[in-house]
Amino acid sequence: MNTDGSTNGIAHDELTMLRQRVALLEQQLAAQQTEAGQRAAELRTLRALVDNAPEGIGFASLDGTVQYLNRAFAEMSGYGEAAIGGTFFGFFSPEGLEYMQREVLPHMQAYGKWQGIIPYLRPNGVEWAAQASAFIVPDYDGTPIGQAIVLRDATEQLIATETMRQQTDALRTANYRLERSFANTPLATIEWGRDGIIKSWNLSAERIFGWTAEEMVGTHILARIVPPMAAEHVQGVVDALLSGQAANSRNLNLTKDGREITCQWYNAVLEDTNGQVVGVLSQTEDISQQVWNEQDRITLQEQVMAAQQAALRELSTPIIPLTDHVVAMPLIGTIDSTRAQQVIETLLEGVSTTRATTAILDITGVQLVDTQVANALLRAAQAVKLLGAQVVLTGIRPEVAQTLVGLGLDLSTIVTRSSLQSGISFALAGRAIGENGNGAHNGRHN
């Protein structure tokens, strides 16, 4: 009885323990299934992320055999899924493969990762550049099991970088040329700020004005090179430039040794990106010799014009000595107020110089005799009479005689003759003075 009861009790305990063990195993199995499901879900999520990533992602074995490419990598490389089973090295151009073997693989072996830009080659022979990150993939225990690469197309970036490099090189070249031009131009080139302070002063400025760059940089543009007499004019030019108006000028300047020179200034307004005036770039040349030459030319031109005018006066109002005491002045053309004055002056000078007692005025060639001309003739006769000589007026045509009569002018003090020949005969016969007892004869004789 007791024996049987003990046996039954032991069997019951073992059964209970067995049931507990089964329940525990069931719980462990359920947990493992749950964990496996979670891992599967995580793997599906990760796979979806990798498959749809915009970057190209690939995985290969340690020897470089391609085991996986996402869609971006397949499209980017141009090989598609056909590349799986091949080698990573087949993606590279000859230059890229050489770079891979020389730079990338040694770096991967030493550090387990690498980043940089490397050239690839598509099946159609088109090269493209990729910004790549490669790294060794370990197992859970840290044992390397493969290698992965993440890349994106950097072709446009490289083109933009190359374009920027070319632009930078061009800018540097242009800046170098500008600096060389600034240094070697024969024009004095001076940059000064909005405050008037000189920022740069080239060798030609030193040559023209005498001051070195060390002496001038940091001083005001008006301080040394502008004399007091030109300060107001130059200040007006400066104000115009700082208001944004391009203004060239010609003005006096001073040199270090105190000489005054005339300079031609060419000014360019400097603005910032907002269009605000920040300074001025001035170029100038010494034109003193040119100004002197111009003044000499003007003086010579004035002298020539004066000589020409004198010659014209002599031609238009000639004095012709006939004898020691008789002169003749034939008048031709139009007589205006200026020429009338010249007639009087020339006639008086001729009578005075030759000490003539008779002056013959021949108006045969005068087309129009009006009040102005008649008055001029009367004034000439009166002026000559004051010198003790007599005027004989010749060449009066009938229409001129009618005009003179119609004007009602008193010609009683003037001897008149119809022609220059009769006037000369009258003068040479010695009848110009003493006729009618007073040297005057009004009336007309042939």
Mean pLDDT across the residues is 81
Q: Would you tell me the structural class of the helices and strands?
A: alpha+beta
- Could you give the order of strands across the largest sheet? 11-12-13-14-15-16
Count of β-strands: 16
Give an account of the 3D structure:
The protein is rod-shaped. Helix 9 packs parallel to helix 10 (371-386). It has 446 residues and is an alpha+beta fold. The strands form 3 sheets. The chain has a 6-stranded mixed β-sheet with strand order 11-12-13-14-15-16, with helices on both faces. The protein has helices spanning 2-52, 71-77, 94-111, 155-184, 203-209, 213-216, 228-242, 288-316, 337-354, 371-386, 398-407, 420-428; strands at 56-60, 66-69, 113-121, 127-138, 144-153, 188-193, 198-201, 249-254, 260-271, 277-286, 320-321, 326-333, 358-366, 390-394, 415-417, 444-445.
Structure in a nutshell:
The chain has helices at residues 2-52, 71-77, 94-111, 155-184, 203-209, 213-216, 228-242, 288-316, 337-354, 371-386, 398-407, 420-428; strands spanning 56-60, 66-69, 113-121, 127-138, 144-153, 188-193, 198-201, 249-254, 260-271, 277-286, 320-321, 326-333, 358-366, 390-394, 415-417, 444-445. With 446 residues, it is α+β, with helices and mostly antiparallel strands.
Question: How is the topology of this model organized?
Answer:
Elements: H1 2-52, E1 56-60, E2 66-69, H2 71-77, H3 94-111, E3 113-121, E4 127-138, E5 144-153, H4 155-184, E6 188-193, E7 198-201, H5 203-209, H6 213-216, H7 228-242, E8 249-254, E9 260-271, E10 277-286, H8 288-316, E11 320-321, E12 326-333, H9 337-354, E13 358-366, H10 371-386, E14 390-394, H11 398-407, E15 415-417, H12 420-428, E16 444-445
